[in-house]
Write a structure and sequence with these properties.
The chain has 179 residues and is mainly α. It contains six helices and no strands.
């Protein structure tokens, strides 16, 4: 049996990469040179879907500001990961597997936070908490599994909508209008 190492599908590799990116993000957050005096990063207005300072940290890793190959590969890799994670979430939800939903919510929360996808991150954090039998803040225990599952069922359409908005914004940013 041959070991396969595909960072696009290996959750451990993706999680490690995400933690590295978050570490770099924290360092960059302490650097005021990312913003002008007016607080602008020079990016288009992403609204409340994408945090421009976080996203700019990804952009700063590009060798070529015109092509943006590196950041584009990260962003489009995230799109693929998110779509696969949504399928896994739907399956886990159908099976009532709260532990899996918590894990998947945690996973997608980290990846979306790395890119600055604030609404997606927030929804995933709630799913992580509900899957762990907690309330949306993660502070109070919710012992009834059915209540937790219903809360996740209720938030999934919002998560997918917020993801779709962020995906559309980023595809426009990268001038990729494919579906």
């Amino acid at each position: 049996m041959t070991a396969r190492h595909d960072s696009q599908e290996d959750p451990v590799c993706i999680h490690t990469h995400t933690r590295h990116m978050v570490s770099m993000q924290k360092e960059a957050n302490s650097c005021p040179s990312l913003q002008s005096d007016a607080g602008s990063t020079g990016l288009p207005d992403f609204g409340d879907n994408i945090d421009p300072l976080t996203f700019e940290q990804i952009l700063e890793m590009d060798d070529d500001e015109e092509e943006r190959e590196f950041s584009k590969s990260i962003v489009f890799g995230f799109f693929e990961q998110a779509e696969n994670t949504f399928k896994s979430m739907d399956s886990s939800l159908a099976k009532g597997n709260l532990e899996s939903l918590s894990s998947l919510g945690h996973f997608l929360k980290g990846s979306s936070a790395t890119l600055g996808l604030t609404k997606v991150k927030d929804a995933c954090e709630k799913i992580q908490h509900y899957g762990a039998h907690k309330d949306e803040t993660g502070t109070h225990t919710v012992p009834d599994a059915n209540v937790c599952l219903e809360r996740i069922k209720k938030i999934m359409p919002t998560l997918k909508h917020d993801y779709s908005e962020a995906e559309s914004i980023l595809k426009r940013y990268y001038h990729d209008y494919s579906t």
